[in-house]
Amino acid sequence: MKLSPELTKLERDTYKQIRGNWRDKPKGPKVLSRAEIIEKLNREGMLPAITFIFSRKACDAAVKQCLQSGIRLTNEKDREIIRAIVARNIGNLAQEDLVVLGYYEWFEGLERGIASHHAGLLPAFKTTVEELFQRGLVKAIFATETLALGINMPARTVVLEKLSKWNGEGHVAISAGEYTQLTGRAGRRGIDIEGNAVILWNNDLDSNSVGGLASTRTYPLKSSFKPTYNMSVNLISQFGSEKARSSLESSLAQFQADKAVVGLAKQIRKNEKARDELFVESACHLGDFVDYSQMRADIKKLEVISKRDRRRRVDAEEEIASIRKRLKNHPSHACPDRENHARFSERAQRLQREIDGLSERINSRTNVIAKRFDRIKIILDDLGYIKKGEISEAGRMLAKIYGETDLLISESIREGVFEQLSAVDLVTVISCFVYESRSEESSKVPRGDVGVALGKISKIYGKIYNLENEHNLEPMRAPDFGFCWPAQRWASGHSLTSVLKDDDLTVGDFVRNMKQIVDLLRQLRGAIKELEPLIDSALLKIDRGVVVYAGAAV
């Protein structure tokens, strides 16, 4: 992509200005507030716009800033339609929940044509925002990147505040594919002649890097597919082990792994050819120079050991002396071209080490999907889910349980973990299979029957972890007890305000986790017939209020 000469000159002049004022506070272009940016876009006729901010809190803060500035992007007719749509979508929510849901601030923003959109919002709020934006009634949205995935919300303009985001460990630059996914929202088919992508200026911004992101047109599609325990028993049940393994070998993930192997194999062949040529060059007419070169290499290794490890120094020095004696007696030691031979031989050995490393990488990638299936099958066989190549009764139960912790749930059922629990306690315990904390802080857990059940689950997880480690499988995620208290309070009939007041938990996260608990309980209902009455009671206790009226977009 060719950058505008005016942009390049402006950037260069700005950096000169900043460097020229290094003793004082750095000066550069005025940084506009979020409200000022929306007002400018409105004046330029560039709304509706989506501003991507990679933080939920920052999205909500941006809406507040706009409201405080007095921005209004709607007329009275727009507001009448907005009120009608909100009443239709949100009318079933309990009045006492509206404050904790942040309804009044949210509704004020909608009336002014401004909203946030992220996973922390109540799903019914998100779907309402989406509908209003699609109808042109909400004209400015502050959103996290999840809005760019699978939601039909094109805009005239997309604004990116930064070209980096937090990935859970640190701030990383967004990829060209992510840039295209985000800015691809700009331009409404049949309405706009062109879309606008706006990148906000900051001192660290490099226009060339932006041009590189915008001009990239090929994005590798990488499969994240891998067999699970549930998938494996279902495949074996339907096709048998051999056919199941064969079908996995034909997956996109295996194709991509094999494609990478082709490149590695090509490099090995190239290295082998160069190595063989070097070995020819290193050949000595007086004796086996490969043997002679190996002794020289052994001496170097032992010298390193002698310097680093005092305890092994005496033994190393004795071995060095012994090898040097053999070295002097070797026929090639008297060769006048000895050092030239040595250089060729060392380069050949270096290439051999590279070849060995590449071979290991090929071995780790060849049939990687099928190998994972084989290892899973061994564990399933050890635990009795497969007997004589056939799916057992336990295997048929596992086939009905879907999720990241499928085997842990199944083993907990077989160990009778849920049998003595009340309906409220069952909900509390079940939460550990679906919840995933956003922080690494350990959570306190309820005592009594719940504490005993969670202790049993932890032991079962330890058993599975050891099996997976023994068979070189990536361990499944551990049970997470961070949602036990909110789940218990909700199942006990507490109000939404009471459930959320002591937890750093958004309404959207709460509803999503409760919906996942509902889904898992329904799976268990089909898997454990004898616990159906208990599960039905648990479902009645939690499928209420905002959980019922959450809408489909969880």
Automatic annotation (TrEMBL):
Pfam families, from UniProt?
DSHCT, Helicase_C
Answer whether the UniProt record assigns the keyword rRNA-binding to this protein.
Answer: no
MF GO annotations: ATP binding; helicase activity; hydrolase activity
Name the Gene3D superfamilies on file.
1.10.3380.30, P-loop containing nucleotide triphosphate hydrolases
Origin species: freshwater metagenome
Q: Which InterPro entries match?
A: Helicase_C-like, P-loop_NTPase, RNA-DNA_Helicase, Ski2/MTR4_C
Q: Name one GO cellular component term.
A: Ski complex
Alphabetically list the UniProt keywords. Answer: ATP-binding, Coiled coil, Helicase, Hydrolase, Nucleotide-binding
Coiled-coil regions listed in the entry: 341-368
Protein name per UniProt? Unannotated protein
> Which CDD domains is this protein grouped with?
SF2_C_Ski2 (cd18795)
Provide the Helicase C-terminal domain boundaries: 33-236
Gene Ontology biological-process entries: nuclear-transcribed mRNA catabolic process, 3'-5' exonucleolytic nonsense-mediated decay
